[in-house]
Amino acid sequence: MPEEIGRYVHRYVEETRAALADPYLADGIGRIVPVLLAARAAGRTIYFFGNGGSASTASHFVVDIGKATIRGDGRRFKCVALVDNVESVTAWANDAEYAKVFSEQLKTLAQMGDVAVGISGSGNSPNVLRAVEMARSMGLSTIGLSGLGGGKLKEMVDISIVVPSNSMQHTEDVHLLICHLLTAYLRDEAPQARATG
Hints:
By secondary structure, the chain is an alpha/beta fold. It has helices at about 1-20, 25-40, 55-65, 85-95, 105-110, 125-135, 155, 170-190, 190-195; strands at about 45-50, 80, 115-120, 140-145, 160.
């Protein structure tokens, strides 16, 4: 049994490693960083949203980027995880439809120039797609994280990172790694962060 488990662990790690071994990751991070830095410089808000495991990644993004990137002068990224407003999520789901739980929050909170980050393993979550549509109609910059081919999300956003994997687990693994990569870069490496923060 331990040998069988060891083989499974090795295979899982190798499959995750394969999902990382591609220039798409550096390219995507390189396109996202300027958008986030511009949002911070302009005092704009970054909204994160997703379902299930992607909901937890959205919350994780907000904690890490909102707190761990604070520089010397105290300038901060203004971040909101729409998944964390349980009262609004359940009210819209109950009184309207689940597909509106994020878009209606954006309609209330967001302003032109803000940023919307939709996270969907399949790229086809109706409430994520509806929120991206709302964000675009309101003049927000849009970012999408997906996998499994990217679904509809990859064509709807300004910047798309599609994890090259057909496994939801590996896709979610990489999405969390993207969160940590962005956080570390914005904290440690970004020239503008050094100059202004």
